[in-house]
Amino acid sequence: MQDTDDFRVKRINQMLLEMAKGNFFYSLEPSDKNDNLASLMVMINMVKEEIQASFIHQGFVSTDRTPQFLIQMSLIIDENGIVEMANQKACGILLRMRNAILGSPFTDLLTESSQKKWNKKMKTFLKRKHLDTSIKLSFKTKEGLLISKNCTVTNFRTLDGNSSKIIVNTVLFSNAEPDVKGLWKNAVEPGKESKRRKIRLSHGDIQKIRNVHDMILNNLESDPPHLKDLALQMGTNEFKLKYGFKELYGTTVFKFLIQERLRKAKTLIKYTSKSLKTIAHMVGFKSIPHFSRAFKEKYGRTPSSLRS
User: Fold this and answer.
1) What is the average pLDDT across 121-144?
2) Same-domain check for residues 124 and 41
3) Pick from 38, 70, 100, 174: most CB atoms within 10 A?
4) CA-to-CA distance for 96 and 299, rounded, in angstroms?
5) Residues 18 and 104 in one domain
6) Short-list 107, 116, 167, CA closest to 140
7) How far apart are CA 267 and CA 158, in angstroms?
8) Which of 297, 299, 289, 221 is nearest to 266 (CA)?
9) Please, what is the angle between helix 253-271 and helix 238-249, to 10°?
10) Distance of alpha carbon 34 from alpha carbon 12, whole angstroms
């Protein structure tokens, strides 16, 4: 397990960002160290538990105005333990692109202790003719946050009867607003002077575009799918994604990706001793000359000049 100070600070930062967005289903893995950062991580977990409990209590007290919303995470695993399907919410919760989940071992999404538990149980799950049980698993996000939940596990056979598959489901609570039809109706629409095709974005559309924004930020080292595929993955269409992203963030999806890659690269150059080649690859540039040109075009100086 990575337990350096930088990695722990990064996890703390990510945890606080998720809490600020109303997501209280994450937690921080306890550190093996006994220092101030370890104490801070424990305190953050405790605060998270208290806030989450208070929201649930509020829901019982005032059921008409409860801020709790259900989010379902679903995955299908084949008999070799490979993930064949992950719903859009699972990708968002685990902070991973769908193509980084599909085709990978299910155990890659779990903590070490849950990996052992799953490997021990999976063969039994597949052998059962009818299965409808539960198991507590701890998932880990790309940023090292944990999600410990009781999951329902169901098995089924394919139509040809030649193979078995497993469905893993879990439900999480979030304080973030759901995609409710009619909520914030017509939240964003172009001005009368606009000559572009007019389109109204519902609150649900805006939330989906925000999810694209967050997905890009959490996966700067990877090239996102084509806009059409990305829009489909997020439950919208290419035109709404292009238009809505420009309205919300003032730039295109591609320009935003490059801008954030360069911003992160600049930080890494200034505050780490990593080589420029390593940094370029870390932020998704496969060509060093391309990275240098893009960096100079944005900041007016070469990457190497920041260290001179």
Assistant:
1) 89
2) no
3) 174
4) 29
5) no
6) 107
7) 50
8) 299
9) 50
10) 16
Per mean pLDDT, which range of 7-21, 131-145, 215-229 is the poorest? 7-21
b/e string for 54-69 if b means 16 or more Cβ within 10 A?
Answer: ebeeeeeeeeeebebe
- Which segment of 127-136, 157-166, 192-201, 275-284 scores lowest on mean pLDDT? 192-201
Q: Report the number of distinct structural domains present in the chain.
A: 3
Where do the DSSP E strands lie in 104-209? 132-140, 145-157, 164-174
Worst-scoring range by mean pLDDT, 52-56, 66-70, 158-162?
66-70
Residue 196 CA to its chain's centroid (Å) = 32
> Which pTM does this prediction carry?
0.67
Residues for the chain: how many in total?
308
Q: Is residue 57 part of a domain?
A: no
Q: Using CA atoms, how far apart are residues 287 and 295, in angstroms rounded to an integer?
A: 12
Residue 92 DSSP SS3: helix
Residue 205: which of 168, 170, 234, 162 has the closest Cα? 234
Whether 139 contacts 58, CB under 8 Å:
no
